[in-house]
Write a structure and sequence with these properties.
Length: 192
């Protein structure tokens, strides 16, 4: 069974230290980020997380608390912790807003032929996390303008998507007047 316990991260001199209680006091543990997106479950060696179908954009980046990451570690018998390395679980879909539509796009939607957001089950029994996307997960993610904005400014934006190959996708832009524009591709991108 997986029981959630929240830790606090402290960065000092380029090193991050985690503060919290691990049960048992020694042995293997798994850390996930962000804490809020992980769910308690009864599946051994697996963690269930939720990738939101509605994300808020950040210019030249991605929304806060969205980059699902997992790390395995070990607490030694003497109580000293091992080093952990977080590995990203999702992939990024990148697009740009050009000058000619600066502050004109009110919403962006990415639609794929396979599920790209929703419940993800992450198997951490091996060296690298293996992600299974729930068959009933969403094939669409909506990206809203950055907090405090009603439209996307010129720049580069990212949508976090499940690590599945996108075998064709549609990027739909809705402008501030409600007009809809779409770009479709039959290319295969991403995947693990």
């Amino acid at each position: 069974a997986t029981t959630k316990k929240q830790f606090l991260a402290e960065i000092t001199d380029g090193a991050t230290r985690f503060k919290g209680n691990i049960t048992p006091k020694y042995g293997n543990f798994v850390a996930v980020y962000p804490y809020e997106l992980a769910a308690e479950n009864d599946i051994a060696q697996k963690i269930v997380m939720h990738l939101p179908t509605e994300q808020t954009a950040v210019q030249d980046g991605f929304g806060p608390n969205l980059n699902l990451s997992i790390a395995k570690g070990q607490r030694n018998v003497d109580g000293s912790p091992s080093k952990v390395n977080f590995m990203n679980v999702c992939q990024l879909f990148k697009f740009q807003v050009p000058e000619y539509i600066n502050n004109r796009i009110a919403k962006v939607e990415l639609t794929a032929s396979t599920p790209i957001a929703g419940q993800l089950t992450i198997d951490y029994s091996g060296d690298f996390p293996v992600v299974a996307v729930d068959a009933n997960a969403s094939k669409k993610i909506s990206l809203l303008p950055p907090t405090g904005s009603s439209a996307f400014a010129v720049g580069t934006y990212y949508v976090l998507v499940a690590p599945e190959a996108l075998n064709g996708f549609t990027l739909t832009f809705t402008d501030v007047d409600g007009k809809v524009y779409s770009q479709q591709s039959n290319s295969t991108i991403g995947g693990t």
